[in-house]
């Protein structure tokens, strides 16, 4: 490509080619809502602004937020996985058994991640090899994985974890800054870099925006999809380590319904459910927003049912607002 | 000469301040076919949408049998007896044929759908169009041509007096077009007025009695087909005289570049062998379904051939997937630029970069400056009309979209460029630009394999012509030997 190398130096630094204007508008909106809610919380509750309260608030969403990162990749690539809550339960149960068998904390953590990885691999094979639509495949594994968890321990509890295991879900890195929060922020930065600045990220967008054209452009569409499923599974395993560590015990019912909360976070973050659009910054902001709103309400002793209503209303409200703001300027084709 | 059944004068229509129709004028006569001709964006679709009641006209005069009328809704259009058959058959694939015909007014008995009557009436209408279509068949099982017939049946069931056909032949084979025209002539004989929209001049001269040419939203000419020549029509369409629609660049043909031997795959094609030389445009002609695209997709690695050898510059290639073909120097401009060719929501720069990302990155990180420079280079070279390389592909016209797709493949630095129907659905001006571009590409020493279903295109551009029929190569012609008759004979003979 001689034309390429010759013309590069002559040009001034490029403007961002990738629709930043549109993204920024969306993220600005989210950011404003976060700040608004933050101020509202601070005004309504005198305890809210203390560092330790805020630190507590972060436990409210970090595990789900960590899963929302690979889920965003998967939805951008045009697929979905609703089995992640069940994957967590299955991983937690096996971690409990491994701990019961007397293995140390490193082995327990490894088990959690590997179980998640295998679960993701199963979803990936169903979708890319057997061509089952991802929503159908993962409805199946949603039941299957949860079923495995119940089959193994019934209504029992596993809690023979070693004391050092508690660090992942309860530990602090510095002052009131929790391990979970640091992990989330580090992962978010890595995901943002991969998705927005690398060839891999560009290909993921292309796959979601038009899988046929992506395939014809020499992109290994199925391989990408498979590995994102595996990644999401592994991260769900990791989230299971955090949650199990925080609770200090395993029940087969843990993380029930989390899949929908994770997907809510992703959609609220501006990731198009049709694939091909969105940003990690949006997901981070939406995680903060959900965390802020739910914690703020719980400080005011609002019951859990109302929390669910507020989260649902928030999702519908913000998404509807975005489609009014975001698409009114689009040109009509005729 | 009878009076026009429908007459439009000075009809205007704007969308969000953009004037789509400035001076819409057309007369339709009972028992005559009027061809509506114009480049993309000339206002043809807007006119059709006004006639079918999808859009309101902003101003102007519409007269039906001399009386001023107001169409304004699909119901009114139906009441006036206006019925449209669209380019992409608008049908319900999961419903039966009979349900599709009576989609708006099902025969009823005591408030329930009267299935027996519906099927019987459908059978009577279909008997005259294509007796092979059973009213109970699910729509999904029909061919594209048969779906068009069902739409015609829908028009007939409505007692349509004005039938609008919007590029009805775009997806039809030669024989199917002939069958369609037989029916068009029958509709004509029954005294119906037909508005026929097509990009294909052969068809217009074959079937139309009158013409109306639109350019930039305004009627620029109307008259009788027998008084006009093809070149005059083209001149009216583009507003300038096009000396040559098919500018053939003379390029010295070099040594053999690419060779395929004994390529076979299941039922799709068998024993396909051909060579391609440097500087050569190899035309591949055949009917839809002859297996041409299937051969090219196997060469490009989208499917795996059962047998056969592929050689490029003397080396035998093992192609398992498109990335292997791209790496080896083969590029494929697919037939459908919007679904297969480009990503409509992506900016131009990202579209052009997509198959070349590994050259536009450093250790896996995108080099956006390089990406942009590459795109700007091709926008200049190919004269792509755009506000900038950050503009989304969907905002470009069809011809410019096709140029972006071609640019995307040229950027991979190929030796062999396969182009599947490279000018499908783009207007005459853009076609000529693509033909020129093809000439420039082969002048650089590349070889082009061009699949085309348009005879004038194949004959005007190709140095050699392969003809496929039912999965096999049936004939090869040099440019000098080829005649329309011999090519069509090879493509259709049983």
TrEMBL record, chain A:
Pfam families attached to this UniProt entry: BPD_transp_2 (PF02653)
Subcellular location(s) of the protein: Cell membrane
Swiss-Prot/TrEMBL keywords: Cell inner membrane, Cell membrane, Membrane, Transmembrane, Transmembrane helix, Transport
InterPro entries, sorted: ABC_transp_permease (IPR001851)
Domain of life: Bacteria
Entry keyword annotation includes Hydrolase: no
Main location: membrane
Subunit text: The complex is composed of two ATP-binding proteins (LsrA), two transmembrane proteins (LsrC and LsrD) and a solute-binding protein (LsrB).
Function: Part of the ABC transporter complex LsrABCD involved in autoinducer 2 (AI-2) import. Probably responsible for the translocation of the substrate across the membrane.
Protein name: Autoinducer 2 import system permease protein LsrD
Species assigned in the record: Acidisoma silvae
Automatic annotation (TrEMBL), chain B:
Any single Pfam family the record assigns to this protein: ABC_tran
Compartment(s) of residence: Cell membrane
Keyword check for 4Fe-4S: no
An annotated GO cellular component: plasma membrane
SMART domains named among the record's database cross-references: AAA
Topology with respect to the bilayer: Peripheral membrane protein
Gene3D superfamilies recorded: P-loop containing nucleotide triphosphate hydrolases (3.40.50.300)
Keywords attached to this entry: ATP-binding, Cell membrane, Membrane, Nucleotide-binding, Repeat, Sugar transport, Translocase, Transport
Name this polypeptide is given: Sugar ABC transporter ATP-binding protein
């Amino acid at each position: 490509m001689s034309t390429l190398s010759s013309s590069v130096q002559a040009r001034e630094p490029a403007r961002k080619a990738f629709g930043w204007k549109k993204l920024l508008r969306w993220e600005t909106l989210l950011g404003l809502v976060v700040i608004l809610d933050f101020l509202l919380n601070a005004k309504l509750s005198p305890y809210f602004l203390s560092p330790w309260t805020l630190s507590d608030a972060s436990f409210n969403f970090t595990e789900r937020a960590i899963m929302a990162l690979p889920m965003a990749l998967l939805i951008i690539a045009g697929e979905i996985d609703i089995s992640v809550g069940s994957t967590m339960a299955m991983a937690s149960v096996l971690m409990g058994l491994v701990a019961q068998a007397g293995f140390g904390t490193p082995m327990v953590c490894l088990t959690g991640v590997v179980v998640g990885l295998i679960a993701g691999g199963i979803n990936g094979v169903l979708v890319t090899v057997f061509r089952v639509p991802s929503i159908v495949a993962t409805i199946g594994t949603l039941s299957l994985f949860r079923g495995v968890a119940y089959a193994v321990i019934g209504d029992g509890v596993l809690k023979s974890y070693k004391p050092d295991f508690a660090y992942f879900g309860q530990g602090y890195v510095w002052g009131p800054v929790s391990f979970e929060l640091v992990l989330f922020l580090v992962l978010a930065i890595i995901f943002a870099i991969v998705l927005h600045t690398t060839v891999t990220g560009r290909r993921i967008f292309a796959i979601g925006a038009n899988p046929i054209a992506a395939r014809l452009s020499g992109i290994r569409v199925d391989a990408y999809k498979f590995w994102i499923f595996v990644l999401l599974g592994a991260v769900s395993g990791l989230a299971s380590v955090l949650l199990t560590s925080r609770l200090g015990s395993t029940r087969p019912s843990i993380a029930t319904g989390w899949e929908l909360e994770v997907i809510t976070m992703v959609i609220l973050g501006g990731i198009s459910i049709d694939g091909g659009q969105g940003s990690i910054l949006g997901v981070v902001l939406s995680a903060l927003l959900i965390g802020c709103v739910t914690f703020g309400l719980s400080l005011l002793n609002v019951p859990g049912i109302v929390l669910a209503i507020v989260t649902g209303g928030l999702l519908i409200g913000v998404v509807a607002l975005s489609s009014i703001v975001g698409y009114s300027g689009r040109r009509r084709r005729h | 000469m009878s009076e026009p059944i429908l007459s439009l004068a000075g009809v205007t229509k704007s969308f969000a301040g953009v004037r789509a129709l400035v001076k819409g004028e057309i007369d339709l006569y009972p028992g005559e076919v009027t061809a509506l001709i114009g480049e993309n964006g000339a206002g043809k679709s807007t006119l059709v949408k006004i006639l079918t009641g999808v859009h309101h006209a902003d101003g102007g005069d519409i007269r039906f049998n001399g009386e001023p009328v107001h169409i304004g809704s699909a119901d009114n259009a139906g009441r006036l007896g206006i019925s449209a058959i669209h380019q992409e058959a608008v049908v319900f694939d999961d419903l039966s044929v009979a349900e599709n015909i009576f989609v708006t007014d099902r025969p009823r008995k005591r408030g329930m759908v009267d299935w027996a009557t519906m099927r019987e009436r459908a059978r009577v209408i279909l008997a005259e169009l294509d007796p092979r279509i059973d009213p109970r068949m699910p729509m999904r099982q029909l061919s594209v041509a048969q779906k068009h017939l069902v739409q015609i049946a829908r028009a007939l069931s409505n007692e349509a007096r004005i039938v609008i056909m919007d590029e009805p032949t775009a997806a039809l084979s030669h024989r199917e077009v002939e069958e369609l025209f037989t029916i068009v002539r029958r509709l004509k004989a029954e005294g119906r007025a037909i508005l026929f929209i097509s990009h294909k001049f052969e068809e217009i001269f074959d079937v139309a009695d009158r013409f109306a040419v639109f350019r930039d939203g305004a009627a620029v000419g109307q008259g009788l087909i027998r008084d006009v020549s093809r070149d005059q029509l083209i001149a009216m369409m583009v507003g300038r005289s096009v000396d040559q629609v098919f500018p053939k660049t003379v390029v010295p043909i070099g040594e053999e570049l690419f060779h395929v031997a004994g390529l076979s795959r299941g039922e799709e094609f068998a024993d396909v062998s051909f060579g391609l030389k440097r500087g050569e445009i190899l035309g591949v002609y055949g009917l839809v379904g002859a297996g041409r695209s299937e051969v090219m997709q196997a060469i490009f690695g989208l499917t795996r051939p059962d047998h056969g050898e592929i050689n490029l510059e003397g080396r035998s290639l093992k192609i398992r997937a498109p990335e292997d073909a791209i790496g080896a120097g083969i590029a494929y401009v697919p037939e459908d630029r919007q679904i297969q060719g480009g990503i409509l929501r992506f900016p131009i720069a990202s579209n052009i970069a997509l198959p070349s990302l590994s050259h536009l990155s450093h250790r896996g990180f995108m080099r956006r400056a390089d990406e942009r420079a590459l795109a700007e280079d091709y926008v200049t070279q190919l004269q792509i009309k755009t506000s900038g390389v950050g503009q989304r592909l969907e905002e470009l016209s069809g011809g410019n979209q096709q140029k972006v797709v071609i640019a995307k493949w040229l950027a991979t630095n190929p030796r062999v460029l396969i182009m599947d129907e490279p000018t499908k659905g783009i207007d005459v001006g853009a076609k000529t630009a693509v033909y020129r571009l093809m000439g420039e590409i082969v002048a650089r020493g590349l070889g082009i394999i061009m699949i085309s279903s348009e005879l004038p295109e194949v004959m005007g551009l190709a140095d050699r012509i392969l003809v496929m029929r039912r999965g096999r190569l049936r004939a090869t012609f040099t440019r000098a030997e080829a005649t329309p008759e011999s090519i069509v004979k090879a493509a259709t003979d049983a």
